[in-house]
Automatic annotation (TrEMBL):
<dbReference type="GO" id="GO:0003677">
    <property type="term" value="F:DNA binding"/>
</dbReference>
<feature type="domain" description="HTH arsR-type">
    <location>
        <begin position="238"/>
        <end position="306"/>
    </location>
</feature>
<dbReference type="InterPro" id="IPR001845">
    <property type="entry name" value="HTH_ArsR_DNA-bd_dom"/>
</dbReference>
<dbReference type="InterPro" id="IPR036388">
    <property type="entry name" value="WH-like_DNA-bd_sf"/>
</dbReference>
<keyword id="KW-0804">Transcription</keyword>
<dbReference type="GO" id="GO:0003700">
    <property type="term" value="F:DNA-binding transcription factor activity"/>
</dbReference>
<dbReference type="InterPro" id="IPR036390">
    <property type="entry name" value="WH_DNA-bd_sf"/>
</dbReference>
<dbReference type="InterPro" id="IPR051011">
    <property type="entry name" value="Metal_resp_trans_reg"/>
</dbReference>
<dbReference type="Pfam" id="PF01022">
    <property type="entry name" value="HTH_5"/>
</dbReference>
<keyword id="KW-0238">DNA-binding</keyword>
<protein>
    <recommendedName>
        <fullName>HTH arsR-type domain-containing protein</fullName>
    </recommendedName>
</protein>
<keyword id="KW-0805">Transcription regulation</keyword>
<dbReference type="InterPro" id="IPR011991">
    <property type="entry name" value="ArsR-like_HTH"/>
</dbReference>
Amino acid sequence: MPIVLSEPAPKGRGLTILFELEDLARTRFAPAPLPMYELVFTVHSGTWDRLLLPQIRPLAELVRPGRFIPDFFNSARPDFDEAVRQVLDTPSTRVRDQIASMLGTTSPWLRSFAAGTPTSRHDLRSALNTGFRDLLGSNWPETRQAFDAEVRLRSSQAVSRGLGDLLGNLHPSISWTSPALHVELGWDTEISLRGTGMLIVPVLNGLTRPAVSMFAEPQPLLFYPVAAPQPSGASLELALGRTRTLVLRALTSERTTTELAKHVGISLPTASQHATALRTAGFVSTHRNGRSVRHRLTRRGWELLN
């Protein structure tokens, strides 16, 4: 079964996922952002610079706008190189079946890839590496920090309200009525997890609605979109002042005081003063690493930017 994106549906219609007690015990969050999915959902969204198309054309041919994404892109490896190897190691028969059922062999390259030629696999490897580097690489530290903040927030919710409340509030198109999770789809179907549990994957790039991969191994996957931290513009600057807002934005990546000063274009004492004020307000955490002092956003800081 391919990766399926949810879509608006009449109330009560969609995918029903039945949980047993063992499933609840085994349901967990991904340990880190999963780069293969972040890349594939980004390409699928179409919101990327088309000047990049010649470099990632093989990937773009396989990930087209629509409800489905081929399941041979399933890789829950946090390391991108390992995820690429897993995708490229997919048996040719599975690749061929997915292409035939979803895409058709409408181009010479797709026919070559469906046949499993080494050249076509090399082409896809190159497209994956280029796509990750040019579409996600420069912001990957921020993606990781936002992912960690989201998981901390959801973990706190699970402790204070219970797992059912957490599952039912991941996205407006997801709901929980024990013992089932409901995801809006354009058709009705019911699946039992049968003790495998689910891997829940927050996605920071490309995804606007939940998605599922129900036959992924070793357990099904539930993806849901998380708004990447974005500066909230003039209103934030009005509240904090322009320079302090720039400091807050800069600390979406961990920086020393010197790095912060250079990044924002302010003096070292001024950078230290703003970092101290933001730390006092609970928006920034600071720790010492050798001779340097390093700053980064706290969860409250991410929430302020969100």
